[in-house]
Amino acid sequence: MLINDLFSTIQFPYLDFTALSAGSYTNLARSLLAFEFVSPGEEIFHLGWFRLKWYGLLIATAVLIGVNLSIRLGQSRKIDPEAIADLAIWLVIGAIPAARLYYVIFEWDTYSQYPQNIIKIWEGGIAIHGALIGGSIAAIIFAKLKQISFWQLADVIAPSVVLGQAIGRWGNFFNSEAFGSQTDLPWKLCIPISPNGCEYVHPTFLYESIWNLVVFTLLMWLFIKDSRQHHLKTGSIFLVYLVAYSIGRFWIEGLRTDSLMFGSLRMAQMISLVGIAIGSIGLSWLYLRRRSLPDVV
């Protein structure tokens, strides 16, 4: 029953192939591209006080996949698997509180009226940029304590991070959040506004998930190619991640209607510009000036 409910959230229309005989190739193309997402709800099931939600399951899945992938990538770079496993704990401890704090700061008008809700992270309200900032700080401290190159660690975990982001974005779908403006495109997300009616909006969760998978593919290609030829400088893969992810996030954020704001500015777009700048400067430092990145070791 659960699997049936999940697959029923994506609805494909009937395809009328008579469009070909009429020469309506545009209409046929729109039909082939048409699909509608309808969230089945945020909960998988609940039993008494216990509630299992899709978002939590997806985040846990992303962490498990990410840790295992990072361990395998780390082994190819001669990094102790136990160090990667320990780092994963540090990243979770650093990322989750920072993701929540970031969100609360930019939604302070709401949380200042209900401060008791600040700790209720299980009700939603985390920001990926906050998680990236908190996780980066935790990784820097970890690298310093363990006397491991931060940039080596960053190169190893970057593919796992962006893959985790691709998986986690589907939590927004089940929560019916982080969507875009209204659209009449063939592909769309249904936001119920009445028992029998929908408001159709851009499925920005899907856009970002697809973009993150593209970035993941790029990073893995670079990693595998470098494992064979050893042409990349330490830190390159992480810097490419910063630039590539931030470019996609900047564009997609412009479609959203629930952005965290700083005055009239979208914070995610501002942070994305910072990410593009840092990544570009770092890559220029490595390949134009031919110098190593400053490290914590």
Question: Secondary-structure map with pairings?
Answer:
Blueprint: H1 2-7, E1 10-11, H2 18-21, H3 25-33, E2 35-38, E3 43-47, E4 50-53, H4 54-76, H5 81-106, H6 108-111, H7 128-146, H8 150-175, E5 187-194, E6 197-201, H9 204-229, H10 236-253, E7 261-262, E8 265-266, H11 267-287
Parallel strand pairs: 2-5
Antiparallel strand pairs: 1-2, 3-4, 5-6, 7-8
Helix pairs in contact: 4-5, 4-8, 5-7, 7-8, 8-9, 8-10, 9-10, 10-11
Please list the strands of the largest sheet in the order they lie side by side. 1-2-5-6
| Residue share in helix | 55-70%
Biggest sheet descriptor: 4 strands, mixed
Spans of at least 5 consecutive residues with low confidence? 12-23
Question: Helices and strands: which structural class?
Answer: alpha+beta
Q: N-to-C terminal Cα separation, in Å?
A: 53 Å
Rg (C-alpha, Å): 21 Å
**Total number of helices:** 11
Count every beta strand, where a strand is a DSSP E run of 2 or more residues. Answer: 8
Give average pLDDT, whole number: 88
How many distinct folded domains? 1
- CA-based shape: globular
Order of helices and strands: HEHHEEEHHHHHEEHHEEH
- Residue share in β-strands: 5-15%
This entry's quaternary arrangement is: single chain
